[in-house]
C-alpha cells in the first residue's frame, strides 16, 4: 500500500531546501499587506458609518423624526470627508538659523453628501435645522387640502413696513431663541478588521446646503450636499460592537444572514480555516465557539439553533474531506510556519542574508591594481 504522506513529505523536503523553486516572485508586497490577517493592508473607502447626534429640542420640530429615523439618516450618507487640518507656521531667525514655529491650527470644512431618499429623511433634517436656527421658514401655513397655502403669509406681506406696529411684531433671521446647538456632535467611524477609528466633530454647524439639479434628461439618483465647520476633533478607537460602536451600526436594515464562508452559513471543506470542520472549537478558526454562549450566560433559542446548524454543517463538510485537500492544507500550514521562522533573520529582511565578507570581485580588482 503506498504511503499517502510520501508526496506531502517530498514537497515539504523540496520546499525547505529550495523554497522559491526555479522562479522567485516579489513577495515583499504580499508579506507587507497580507501577513497577520491583512493588518497593514490599506483600508477600503466604503467601510464607514456616520452618526448624527441631534438634540431633542430640535428633533421635536418634526414630530415623526424619532430615534428610528435618525438611525436611518446615519445610513443615507453617500460620501463623507474625514476631518482636515491646516497648521500655520512662521519662520524665525535663531542666531541666523532658520527655526519653524507653529502658531495655530485650523479645522477645514468637510462635505457630507446624502442620498435624497423617497421618504424625505435627509431634507427633513435640513428643514429641522433651518427652522431651528432661522425664523424665516416657520411662517408657512398648512391646510387640510394643500401642502402649503397658495397665498403669501401675512408675515411676508410687502406692506407690513407701513401697516403699523401690530404687523411688524414678527421675528426673522436668527431671532429664534435657539441657544442649544442643533448637533451635539457628528461622529465619523472608519472601520477595518472589526475595529473602528472614530472622529468626533465638536460643535458642528452647517455652513452650506446644496440641493441637486433636477433634470428630465438624467438617470442619476438625486443627492443633497452639506458643508460642515466645527471647533475641534476628538479621536477614539475600539472594537466594532453591533448597535453601540459605531452608534446605531448593524441595527436597522442590516443583513444578518450568516456568510456562506462561516460555519453557520454552510462552511468550507477545510480543517483549520474559517468555516472549517474544526472552526469554533478550541479557539480555532474565525467562527463563534459553540460554548461561548454558555460561558457568557447568553444561551437562548437563537444560540441553540445556531449551534445545531453549525453542528450539521460540520458533519456534512467532514464527509467531503479528501486526502488531497488534507495534504495541501498541511503543507501550507508547515510552509507558513517555516516562513515565520525565516523572518527572524538578523539581516532584518525575511529570507535574505546580506554578505559580511569582502566580495571576491573586489579582492581581484585590488590585486590587479597592485601589480600595475
Kindly describe this structure.
It is a single chain. The chain has 372 residues and is an alpha+beta fold. Among the domains are: 48-134 and 176-239, Roll (Pnp Oxidase, Chain A); 257-341, no CATH class. Helix content is 28%, strand content 21%. The protein is built from ten helices and ten strands. It has helices spanning 6-17, 28-33, 35-38, 56-59, 67-75, 121-133, 292-296, 301-320, 323-342, 360-371; strands spanning 48-54, 77-80, 84-94, 97-108, 110-115, 183-192, 195-202, 205-210, 223-229, 232-239. It has a four-stranded antiparallel beta sheet. Strands 2-5-9-8 form a four-stranded antiparallel beta sheet. α1 (6-17) runs parallel beside α9 (323-342). The longest helix is centred in the C-terminal third of the chain and has 20 residues, at 301-320. The protein starts with 5 loop residues before the first helix and ends with a helix. The model is unreliable at 290-301 and 341-372 (pLDDT under 50).
Features:
single chain, 372 residues, alpha+beta, Pnp Oxidase, Chain A, 4-stranded antiparallel sheet, 10 helices, 10 strands, extended
List the helices and strands and how they pair.
Elements: H1 6-17, H2 28-33, H3 35-38, E1 48-54, H4 56-59, H5 67-75, E2 77-80, E3 84-94, E4 97-108, E5 110-115, H6 121-133, E6 183-192, E7 195-202, E8 205-210, E9 223-229, E10 232-239, H7 292-296, H8 301-320, H9 323-342, H10 360-371
Antiparallel strand pairs: 1-6, 2-5, 3-4, 5-9, 6-7, 7-10, 8-9
Helix pairs in contact: 1-9
